[in-house]
TrEMBL record, chain A:
<keyword id="KW-0813">Transport</keyword>
<keyword id="KW-1003">Cell membrane</keyword>
<feature type="domain" description="ABC transporter">
    <location>
        <begin position="13"/>
        <end position="248"/>
    </location>
</feature>
<dbReference type="InterPro" id="IPR027417">
    <property type="entry name" value="P-loop_NTPase"/>
</dbReference>
<dbReference type="Pfam" id="PF00005">
    <property type="entry name" value="ABC_tran"/>
</dbReference>
<keyword id="KW-0677">Repeat</keyword>
<keyword id="KW-0472">Membrane</keyword>
<keyword id="KW-0547">Nucleotide-binding</keyword>
<dbReference type="InterPro" id="IPR017871">
    <property type="entry name" value="ABC_transporter-like_CS"/>
</dbReference>
From TrEMBL, chain B:
<feature type="transmembrane region" description="Helical">
    <location>
        <begin position="79"/>
        <end position="99"/>
    </location>
</feature>
<dbReference type="InterPro" id="IPR001851">
    <property type="entry name" value="ABC_transp_permease"/>
</dbReference>
<feature type="transmembrane region" description="Helical">
    <location>
        <begin position="286"/>
        <end position="306"/>
    </location>
</feature>
<dbReference type="GO" id="GO:0005886">
    <property type="term" value="C:plasma membrane"/>
</dbReference>
<feature type="transmembrane region" description="Helical">
    <location>
        <begin position="20"/>
        <end position="42"/>
    </location>
</feature>
<feature type="transmembrane region" description="Helical">
    <location>
        <begin position="54"/>
        <end position="72"/>
    </location>
</feature>
<keyword id="KW-1003">Cell membrane</keyword>
<keyword id="KW-0812">Transmembrane</keyword>
<dbReference type="GO" id="GO:0022857">
    <property type="term" value="F:transmembrane transporter activity"/>
</dbReference>
Length: 508, 336
């Protein structure tokens, strides 16, 4: 890597002693950041470390509470709502900002359409779009409708949009999360090509290997503080991980306890099929923590939703303690002692405008009512108990769920599901978007529930979590169960082999 | 940590009076202001007699609006209530005129039962079209509004339907004009309907489910709530409230026509919104709704007593009130 050249390059954009608070909670503490011309700079940190806030501040979407931003060495106040694009600062969002019904050309020129005598000059705009796409080496048709493009192609359009606006600084937030390996390689080639022409990139990612492969320098944030900035070449993955977490990782997971081989099978899923999932079969024993791994879109959530009745099954049987449960009836399945905790706590798990109590008891109002009449005292008692049991900490007892931190929301959601006293709990992405301290707590809750004789299915895209928690792991790929791993087989490499389709074995 | 928590507990106590939900209080403040304005405009306004009169006249809208509170809290909308009043009232009068039961008291009781069943069925129809038919409630009830209104016009052949039996009229009259311990019956009906509704909405499982469904259907579904059942039942409650309003309406005039209850849906929705229920669902305020209905009637009354504004503008003023109420609601949301 040509670090020497980069070292001398002038600084394009920098942040000095930036602090930021949201409604009294400080999320950034006097952070410094420097982006040189023609470098790819990785911004790393755990969830909640303040990466996205820093990106938003450096692109004008948020204003800092204190501190200053310098563009070409001059202090500036970035205009809000994406108007910083005019200064050459472009952000490519994780969720694309593209209108599905527009064509590629229309998207590229949205908001700055070229006109001749007051009439759109469509010929010129099409030609210009083609030129930019060719420059990127992309075969996307400039007349295609956005909705018809693949995710990788949409990302290409976003990049083309950035380039057509003469971007000097491009922020990319987890750009590879939705890309295949080849698409990622293509993206990296493109980013390097643009870097060599002088464009600067800020690359926000959790994927250490990609950061090592692509970037020139790394800045690590932890708990809203700047920790270190260093050339990527002097660091290795282990070192970056240590900087991000700031402590030994080993204590994160509780000791595993495997259930006895002769423990009762409490859940038996036999040849379940849905629209996408085909012929899935597996068993869970009492007190077991079973992991579900696989790529995003491998059908894990769809299978779980079919098991708990949120979707109907096209074929197959689900038996809870030997008793078959009906298809598509959440209520009955819940009563049978099987509960599902969604991965989407904001859209599907909690009523964000409602307080803790109504959220906690929503799924289990039957326990707090006589002939339909609610007993507020009993609900209150449940809340007190749940807050102690799951360590839910809030500053104001009347707070609505939407204002709680992600970690507390997750604990409240777990408490809500546990209120139904299920024997089998399916937890989809147990620690998505929460800080490492809360993660550790949740792992211990899960482990305690298993020791209590409950069975838990953990669906997770975070491989360390699956490996750290589960005694058996089911790997899914393209709607099928690709393999079920046990004991020493459970390793990152082995799981990857099944998830990527390199290896396959039928359910034992 | 513990020191911190104690400190914050104190802060909570101090903040408590400021934490009162402005949206819940706003309609009552507006009502108080209106009473003040009214008293300044005309000293007769504030008399018990006049106020009791206003409250009595607000009964139809108030009772219908209580039902609308359920529908709106669950995230739906019912535009058909005005037409439904006309339709059910016509059916009730036709039933009483049919003379199938000779004894007038029994006849009246049968007619009341008939009306309640008719109301529930009309509501059920709206509910099923919306949920089982998966049609936007706005469109579904726009359709049934046309249907109920059209059927009324057809039943009355464009004219009026009048209660013929004088004996029946005589027994039934006190249901609107009578008093109990000096309190007009309609006011007692408003209060009891509201009390029952408030109990259902705030203190039962079903009420909690209504608000959850209105707040976020996915969360409700993932919590094992039968979303469509909850929504349908809300429409049935709306139908029952319309029936209750009809039971007060028929003894008042003893007659209906194709124009009965015109624009009542606007007034009912206005009352709900003025009362602080969010139009996009997720929060229901039954007592606020009653307050809203009372405000609407008071505005009309003040206009009548004041002589500065033509009373023919009442419809326009009510239209303006709903817009103002929405603006106020939104600005309060922003502040909180």
């Amino acid at each position: 890597m040509n670090t020497e050249v980069v070292d001398d390059a002038p600084v394009v954009l920098s942040a000095r002693r930036i602090s930021k608070s949201f409604s009294g909670v400080q999320v950034l503490f006097s952070v410094d950041f420097e982006l040189r011309q023609g470098e790819i700079h990785a911004l790393m940190g755990e969830n909640g470390a303040g990466k996205s806030t820093l990106v938003k501040i450096l692109s004008g979407f948020e204003q800092p509470t204190s501190g200053e931003i310098l563009l070409d060495g001059k202090s500036v106040k970035l205009p809000p709502n994406g108007a910083a694009e005019a200064l050459g600062i472009v952000i490519i969002h994780q969720e694309f900002n593209l209108a599905e019904h527009l064509t590629v050309t229309e998207s590229l020129f949205l908001g700055r359409e070229v006109t001749r005598f007051g009439v759109l000059d469509r010929k010129f705009m099409r030609a210009e779009t083609r030129r930019v796409l060719d420059l990127l080496g992309s075969h996307v048709d400039e007349n295609a409708v956005i909705g018809s493009l693949s995710i990788a192609e949409k990302q290409m359009v976003e990049i083309a949009k950035a380039i057509s606006r003469d971007a000097r600084v491009v922020f990319m937030d987890e750009p590879t999360a939705v890309l295949s390996r080849e698409e990622t390689n293509f993206l990296f080639r493109l980013v390097r090509k643009l870097r060599d022409k002088g464009t600067s990139f800020v690359f926000v990612s959790h994927k250490l290997d990609e950061v090592m492969e692509l970037t020139d320098r790394v800045t690590v944030l932890r708990d809203g503080q700047w920790i270190k900035t260093a050339p990527t070449s002097v660091l290795d993955g282990e070192a970056i991980a240590q900087l991000m977490v700031g402590r030994e990782l080993s204590s994160l997971y509780p000791a595993k306890s495997e259930p006895d081989v002769d423990e009762e099978v409490v859940l038996r899923v036999a040849s379940v099929s849905t629209g996408y999932v085909r012929d899935a079969s597996f068993e869970v024993r009492r007190g077991e923590i079973l992991g579900f791994s696989g790529m995003i879109g491998s059908g894990r959530t769809e299978l779980m939703e079919a098991i708990v009745g949120l979707r109907s099954r096209l074929a197959g049987e689900v038996l809870v303690r030997g008793q078959p449960v009906p298809s598509g009836d959440v209520h009955a399945i819940n009563k049978a002692g099987l509960a599902y905790m969604t991965k989407d706590r904001k859209a599907k798990g909690l009523l964000l405008n409602t307080g803790m109590m109504a959220n906690l008891t929503l799924q289990s109002l039957g326990r707090h009512s006589r002939i339909g009449y609610l007993d507020p005292g009993s609900e209150e008692a449940a809340l007190v108990k749940a807050r102690r049991r799951f360590d839910i900490r809030v500053r104001d007892d009347k707070i609505v769920a939407g204002r709680m931190s992600g970690g507390n929301q997750q604990k409240l959601l777990l408490a809500k599901v546990m209120e139904t006293d299920p024997g089998i709990i399916i937890i989809d992405e147990p620690t998505r978007g929460i800080d490492v301290g809360t993660k550790q707590q949740i792992y211990h809750f899960i482990s305690a529930l298993a020791r209590d004789g409950r069975s838990i299915i953990v669906v997770s895209s975070e491989m360390p979590e699956i490996i750290g928690l589960c005694s058996r792991v089911v790997v899914m790929r393209e709607g099928h169960i690709a393999g079920i791993l046990e004991g020493d087989e459970i390793s990152e490499q082995e799981i990857m082999r099944y998830a990527a389709g390199l290896k396959r074995k039928t359910a034992a | 940590m513990s020191v911190n928590q104690e400190g914050s507990q104190e802060a909570i106590r101090r903040r408590n009076w400021r934490d009162i939900d402005l949206r819940a209080v706003a309609p009552f403040v507006a009502l108080a202001l209106l009473l003040l304005v009214g008293a300044l405009v005309n000293p007769n306004f504030i008399s018990i007699n006049n106020l009791a009169n206003v409250a009595t006249r607000s009964a139809f809208i108030a009772i219908i609006a209580v039902g609308a509170t359920f529908v709106i809290s669950s995230g739906d909308l019912d535009l058909s209530v005005g037409a439904m009043v006309a339709f059910i009232a016509s059916l009730m009068i036709l039933f009483m005129n049919s003379g199938v039961i000779a004894d007038p008291v029994l006849m009246l009781l049968a007619a009341i039962l008939f009306t309640v069943v008719a109301g529930a069925l009309c509501g059920l129809t709206n509910g099923l079209i919306t949920t089982a038919g998966k049609i936007e409630p706005f469109i579904a009830t726009l359709g049934t509004m046309g249907i109920y209104r059209g059927l009324t016009t057809w039943l009355s052949q464009g004219g009026a339907i009048t209660l013929k039996e004088p004996q029946l009229q005589e027994i039934y009259r006190p249901a609107y004009f009578g008093t109990i311990f000096g309190v007009p019956v309609p006011i007692i009906v408003i209060l009891s309907v509201t009390a029952v509704a408030a109990f259902i909405l705030y203190r039962t499982r079903y009420g909690r489910h209504v608000v959850a469904v209105g707040s976020n259907r996915d969360v409700a579904r993932y919590s094992g709530i039968f979303v469509n059942r909850v929504r349908t039942v809300a429409f049935v409650i709306q139908g029952l409230c319309v029936a209750a309003a009809v039971l007060l309406y028929v003894p008042r005039l003893g007659s209906t026509s194709a124009t009965t209850g015109i624009l009542w849906e606007l007034q009912a929705i206005t009352a709900v919104v003025v009362g602080g229920t969010a139009l996009k669902g997720g929060a229901g305020r039954v007592w606020g709704t009653i307050c809203g209905a009372f405000i609407l009637e008071l505005v009309g009354n003040i206009m009548l007593l004041s002589n500065f504004i033509s009373e023919y503008l009442i419809g326009a003023i009510q239209g303006a009130i709903i817009i103002i109420a929405m603006l106020v609601q939104r600005s309060l949301v922003r502040k909180s």
